[in-house]
Amino acid sequence: MARIGWLLPAFLLLLFVLKPLGPVKDPDAYWHVVAGEHLQQTRQFVLDDPFGAATENVWILNQWLPELIMHWAHTAYGLAGVAWLLCLGSLLIGVAVLASCRRWSSPLASALVVAVAFVALSGSLSPRPQLVTFALTAVTTSAWLLTREDGRARWWLVPLTWLWACSHGMWFVGPVVGGAVVVGLVLERRVAPRSAARLAVVPALSVVFAGVTPVGPTLYTSPFQVSGVTELISEWQPPGLGDPALIAALALVALVVVDQMRRDRLEWTAVLLTLVAMMLALSWARTVGLAAVVLAPLAAKAIQRLMRQPVSRARRRERLAAGSAGAVALGVAALLAPSVAATPAIGPNGLEAALSRLPAGTVVCNDQADGGWLMLRHPDLKPTMDTRVELYTVERIQAYLAFMSAGPGWQTYPAEVRCTYAVLPSDAAVVPALRWSGGWQVVEQAGGYVLLLS
Fold this sequence. Notes:
two-stranded antiparallel ribbon
């Protein structure tokens, strides 16, 4: 195994690129494309939503940079371009995590940790700006662990965080990692208080400069929009104990904990980063993969210590193999994407013609997962719900859920949002209720969806 260990990272990068390839099935991906197009046309970063019929909160485009890129890819190559971007983003995550591990461990140990991290990440590898957070968390964690070794302040993390803040709402993970490492250095007595204060300027400046993105200081308040409705969002719920992603992340936690228990003195930097990762892993399903990214270099270092072998620098053949694997995989993905990803994996695709005949401005009651699809494919229509949950009040979301389940008071929802048509999955509980009520009639049905008229 040791003789071919240098090839294992290259095989893993193939997995990172090709495993996510397929039709675009993430509901968020569609409205991210729309956001990029709207931003290019209007240059508005904070705006009243022009697309939904029932949104009530301001729309903050705090993920504008990857949204622009997604729009450009879609304009040039359609959904196949968006699917290929996912492959590219996944590759960059794999490279970043691998590089963070390889600094502290052999190719074999690095490959083992990266494989476990891939399991933790697999549920989150979708065409969304969150890919930026996974990649830059790996870069930032690795940089701060190097600072622990040499005591140097890496000022380039400040503009990197600014770029991060233009890309995804969880940019603050970088300063949190930096703060944890600085506190750990103080507890380990590796730096004097004056040097620690100098290092602490890096995460502090990162937070300050995040406020001078095109979104402005509104960026600081944008996470609170989501916090008000998290109890109604599945990905912001704690993960199930049987979730493979959580099991993988906890395996990395166990490696780090066992390594620290074997040491004469605790490495407080590792302890604090592990606590941060455990909070991410246990609190929200959406951040389980992020926990694995933070833990990856610590787990790789732990395995290397168990192996009791020195770490050699990556040789030319190892770098060449990894680079070639990534390039070949992206080429294969580019060839396959037009055939496997040209058609949406979600939405009432069989009703495209019928929806195109509806008058512009028609308000359509719809399934939440199809809101972004409607925004992209039928921009003249007004969907009543989508996955931009921060734009809706808790009361509106609860009313929507009651409507879809035909629960008590469901009849009031269509009147509240003023929809005259409804395009819904045929098996939605509310469909027979709408038909039996006598006020709605079927216009057309196809592909598991039905279009109804009030």
